[in-house]
Write a structure and sequence with these properties.
eight-stranded antiparallel beta sheet, alpha+beta, Alpha-Beta Plaits, 34% strand, 5 helices
Length: 172
């Protein structure tokens, strides 16, 4: 299974989603962009997506508040990281938990962990949890990253179902 993520103006991405309505493409938004997220065994319909192989899946992704956590796993350590056991059964203990994905890049070293909950406040609470701290905090991931601190990436994006006010509808 593969995951493809693309982002841009909501005007343009809404057209793509409508054109490929038979595919299971999810729409999300943040303050800056619209996002399309698709899991499929087929080729992407996006022209320039971020492309990933699904390493770990739990739950069913829906259009609900989502956290995308981007981080580097050094190429030499990817196999070890990919096979690290994760206690996924514990995720359902967290209020509002919906789904989790661990995504390995088809090219490069930037992984994505996708966490989905019913509300953003539940994502915020989850980020303080022992599960997150032990498996996805910057400190927990440091053993898989480059010795060159400047080469390491660790950042997150919150994605929402509703378009925020001010997100441009006009064609770019």
């Amino acid at each position: 299974m593969y995951t493809y993520i693309t982002y841009g103006s909501s005007f343009f991405l809404d057209k793509i989603k409508k054109k490929y309505s038979k595919r299971q493409i999810l729409s999300f938004y943040n303050e800056d962009n619209a996002y399309l997220y698709e899991e499929t065994d087929d080729k992407s319909v996006f022209s320039a997506p971020q492309s990933f192989t699904n390493v770990n899946n739990d739950g069913k992704l829906l259009e609900k508040p989502t956290l995308l956590l981007y981080f580097i796993v050094k190429e030499a350590r990817q196999e070890v990281f990919d096979t690290k056991p994760l206690p996924l059964e514990k995720l359902s203990d967290y209020d509002g938990y919906q789904a989790f994905r661990l995504l390995r890049p088809k090219r490069g070293e930037t992984y994505v962990a996708t966490f989905q909950f019913d509300r953003k406040s539940q994502i915020d609470d989850f980020r303080k949890s022992s599960f997150f701290r032990e498996n996805f905090s910057k400190e927990a991931l440091s053993m898989y990253q480059s010795e060159d601190i400047l080469a390491n990436i660790y950042y997150s994006k919150y994605l929402y179902v509703e378009k925020p006010e001010g997100l441009t509808e006009a064609e770019d």
